[in-house]
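Example 3.2
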Amino acid sequence: MLCIYNNSNDPYINMATEEHFFKNYTEDIFLLWRNKPAVIVGKHQNTLAEINLEYIKENDIPVVRRLSGGGAVFHDLGNLNFTFIQTGETEKLVDFRKYTQPILDVLNNLGIEAKFEGRNDLTIDGKKFSGNAEHVFKNRVLHHGTLLFSSEMKDLTKSLKVNPLKFQDKAVKSVRSRVTNISNHLPSPITLDEFTKKIMDHIQGMYADSKIYQMTDDDHNAIKELADSKYSTWEWNFGYTAKYDMSQGFRTTGGNVEIHLNVDKGIIKEVKVFGDFFNKKDISELENALIGVNHEENAIRGALSDFDINDYIKGSNLDELIKGMF
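Structure, written as tokens:
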């Protein structure tokens, strides 16, 4: 078992690190790592339907899609992530209890009565502190989980707050739970660094062949290339998504506006704009200009940059219209 302290706080790098070791190594691996504030969405989710885009933009919070399924989660430096990568018999690879039991053991040793509940959650007094997900490829499994230790709950709730009526799709939806921080339940306070070491020590004690592994220059270079080509791209984080319909309404000084979008793989296929607003020019010109454009702010801004929006929706402007499309 290669035991790795991944000291990066970059979410693009950290998602790429998991895939690098999952796809390129044959050894069993255990990773501990943290992200700066970021939203991590499941592989099969519609990203825009999971996030509070306005809050994320205002606070410059990265959004990254991971390899595994499941729901969207908020990470910050008060959240510790753990990853198991192991090889085994295909029919026995998916085992949430196996990979979460070491965490429960550490917490029980610290005087916390934590439990495995539902499909993939760990709880204290009925409140969730860990969500877990798995990805299987051939005879190899990647299991990872969050451990809320001292996270900012305000940022967590605001980042993931979205209007459930805005999107209609078949993508996997997140289920929100009441959450808690581990640090709130410790009989005797310890730091996150101390908690991290206790977990690593426990894992090393479980596996006789365990050893601390230091990433090489080759590892770092391959991970950086994967982060740049995949995990930091719009195509992976937003465009890699199921077909969806989005409806959004807003009010301008000239009246009410309602926008309906049909989007497939992140590309706008159909646009309809309704409302009681006045206009000088035919709104279909705006609609047609958006067909085939990525459902992404800069792409939409570029497609409409030559239009005077006030001619098509009296009292409105480009910024207001774009805001109404997300």
